[in-house]
Amino acid sequence: MIPEPAFRRVADRYPFALTPHYASLFNQSDPEDPLALMVMPDEREMEASPDLGVDPLEEDAHSPLPRVIRRYRSRILLVATGQCACYCRFCLRKRISDKVGPVSGKQLQDVVSYLSGRPEIDEVLVSGGDPLTLSDQKLDSVLAAMKSAGNVEILRIGTRMPAVQPSRITPELVKIVSDYKPVFVLTHFNHPRELTAEARAACAMFIDTGIVCLNQSVLLAGVNDDTDTLASLFNGLLKWRIRPYYLFQCDLVEGVNHFRTPLKKGVQIMRELSVRLGGLALPKFVVDLPGGRGKVPVNDSHVSFEKDGRVRIRGFDGSTYDYPDIE
Ligand SMILES: *Cc1c(COP(=O)(O)O)cnc(C)c1O
Ligand code: SF4
User: Fold this and answer.
1) How far is ligand 1, taken at its centre, from the CA of residue 184, in Å?
2) What's the pTM value of the predicted model, to 2 decimals?
3) Whose CA is nearest to atom 3 of ligand 2?
C-alpha cells in the first residue's frame, strides 16, 4: 500500500471504499496484486493525460433529466445511486460516486413521466453506482416505478456486489428482484480470483429463480490483460451459468493511465480467445464511443469486400476463402 499522505491525496480526489470480503481476496505478498490494483488508491491516478476526461462518453450531455442517461432509442440507463461498496479506480462514473445519493421518490416520478410519454423505450438499465447498495425496500420501489411505466418490459440491474460483497445477495433481495422478471442481472467480474464460493452462491441464487445473469468486464493492464487470465475468467463464469456479455476497452476517464492497454492488444487477446473458448464463453469486445454513439465491437474483421466484387473470408488459421456470394 502507498504511504498514508499519498493515499489521502488520491482518495480525496477519487473516493475510496473497500469491503472486508474483497480485502480478504488480496494477495498480501504481491505488491502488484491485480485485485488490490482495482480498488486501492494509487499515485498514478494523479497523472494527467490529454486523452482522459471527467466524462469521456459525454453522458451528462445525454441526460434528458436527472438520473437518466439516454444514448439509444429503445433503452435508458437509470442512475439509481452514485454509491458502491468498493470504488473501482477505473470507474467511468467516478465523477458521481460520492456526490449522488439514492434516487429520490420525486426523481423516480419524473423518470416515470418521461418514460410514459416515450413508448419506444422498452428497457431500463438500473445502474449507478451500484443499485444493490440501496436498501431492499428502496430497490423494490425503483424497480416498481420503472415497471409502472407500462411500456417498460425489460429490466436490467448492473452490479458489482456479487464480486465485492456477495453477502448482500440474500433470499429477500432475490425474491424482490425475481418479482420483476424478465429481469437480467449484469455482474461485473474482472479476474478469476473474484470467482469465490461466496460469489458463486450469490449468483446461483439469482439464476435458480430464473433471472438471467450476464457479465461485463473491463480490460485492464496489470489485472487481466492476458489470454490465460481472461480464458479462466470467462470459462469460470460460464460454468456458473453466467454468460460473458461485454469486454470493455477501458474508458478514457481521468486517472486510468496505468490501466490502459493498446487496442491492438485487446484485439489480439480476443483472437486467441476465440480459438480457445466456445462461443458461449466469448464476450463482445467493445469500445464505448463518446457523444452517445454507443458501444462498438472492435473484434478482428474476417470478411473483406474486394473492389472486383469478390468476397474473401479469413479463417482463424489465417487462410482465406473466396466466398461464392450472390448479388
Ligand atoms: C451500455 C448502455 C446501454 C445498454 O447497451 P447494450 O448494448 O444494450 O448493452 C444503454 N444505455 C446506456 C446509456 C449505456 O451506457
Ligand atoms: S462498481 Fe461499477 S459503478 Fe461502482 S465503482 Fe466499480 S465500475 Fe464504478
Assistant:
1) 13
2) 0.96
3) 129
Q: Which three three-digit cell numbers place residue 51? A: 486523452
Quote the ligand 1 centre to 72 CA distance (angstroms). Answer: 7
Q: Where are the chain's structural domains?
A: 4-301
Other beta carbons within 10 Å of 228: 12
Is the domain 4-301 a CATH 3.40.50.720 member? no
Distance 94 CA to ligand 2 centre (A): 8
The closest alpha carbon to 95, from 124, 54, 41, 128, belongs to 54
Q: Which residues pair with 295 in a beta bridge?
A: 288
Q: Which ligand is the nearest neighbour of the Cα of 161?
A: 2
Ligand 1: residue of 60, 67, 125 to mutate (most ligand atoms within 8 A of CB) is 125
The pLDDT tens digits along the chain (327 residues) read: 788 999 999 999 999 999 999 999 999 999 999 999 999 999 999 999 999 999 999 999 999 999 999 999 999 999 999 999 999 999 999 999 989 999 999 999 999 999 999 999 999 999 999 999 999 999 999 999 999 998 999 999 999 999 999 999 999 999 999 999 999 999 999 999 999 999 999 999 999 999 999 999 999 999 999 999 999 999 999 999 999 999 999 999 999 999 999 999 999 999 999 999 999 999 999 999 988 899 999 988 899 999 988 999 999 888 999 999 988
Residues assigned a catalytic role: 71-72, 75, 84, 88, 91, 93, 251, 288, 295
Instruction: Report the run of H or E that residue 276 belongs to, with start and end.
Output: helix 263-276
Rounded Cα gap, residues 302 and 15, in angstroms: 43
